Structure formats: structure tokens, C-alpha cells
Request: fold
Amino acid sequence: MEALAREAGLTLANASQHLKVLRQARLVEAERRGVFVSYRVADRAVDDFYGALRGLAEARLVEVQQIARAFVEKRGSLEPVDRHRLLERVRKGEVTVLDVRPAEEYRAAHIPGAVSVPLKELEKRLGGLAKDREVVAYCRGPYCVLAPEAVKLLRARGYRAVALGDGVAEWRAHGLPVAAGEAP
Reply:
């Protein structure tokens, strides 16, 4: 909960109240480990619901369409990436997939083969990335600013990089595999 509160810019008490409501609605589940409580989305149906709600808002609300246009104008468009081809390229070692979300989110779920390099750590970990391989960065989905920021930094340092429009929820919604846990 501390990590979630920090990332959301909330106090612990406020984050706790939000999570309590989500838990009562059975949208999240909690697991206590000693003094720590870990929260996770209850199941895939919650991801599907969120995706459907976002799609409805994008299709029906002019304000959301304006925000999406402004985002693309400011951050640049997200690159269309063939998901199955990307997995194949990862397996062949032709591309590096960077998960630039906080490490806690990576541990909860990530694209198989992705490397966890939170955006806050990217600059100091550039030496560990091969410059001769394309880098595909992703974060929380099409409205997340982390991947476009990572791509901007990578390109400025001479890397070939693109931002994937998908997050883990979109990846899963397309029936693709998702991994969990620490990196091997």
C-alpha cells in the first residue's frame, strides 16, 4: 500500500480508504504478509471492465477524445507494434522490451521477456542496454506518460526506441501471456 500511495501522490490514510472501497466492491483483493498488505486486481473481469469503460469514454465523450489528441500532440504517437511478432522477436533476442513502471507493478504482472527498468532508474541503467537492439518501452497503457518519456530519453542517447501503446491489461485482453514475479 505504501508504494501505491507514493505513486498516486496520496497519504497512506487516503490510499487505505480508496482500497477499502475497492475491496468492498470486490474489485481488488488483499493478502496480508506479516505487517504488509499486498493488493491486486481481483481478476481479469475487472481489467475487461476497465477496458470497456475506457473504450466507451473514448467513443462517446468529446472531452476524452480531446485529451487523447492533446496527449498525442504533446508526447508523440505510440507506435503500432504487432504483439505476436514482438513476442517472437523477444524470444530471438532481437529486441529489448522495457517495463518502465515501478518495480512493484512489474512483479505483479508484466509482458514475458520484459526487463524491469523503472523510468526513475533508466538514465543510470542505460549502460546495461545494448545499443544495437531496438528497445520497446511500455507502461500502463495508451494514456500512460512513462513509456513516451523513456523513448524520448533513449532516442536522445542514440537508441532506436518505440513506445508500445499496450499495458499489461491490454496485452492480457488480446489473449496474450502475462508473467509475474521477479525477473530471472
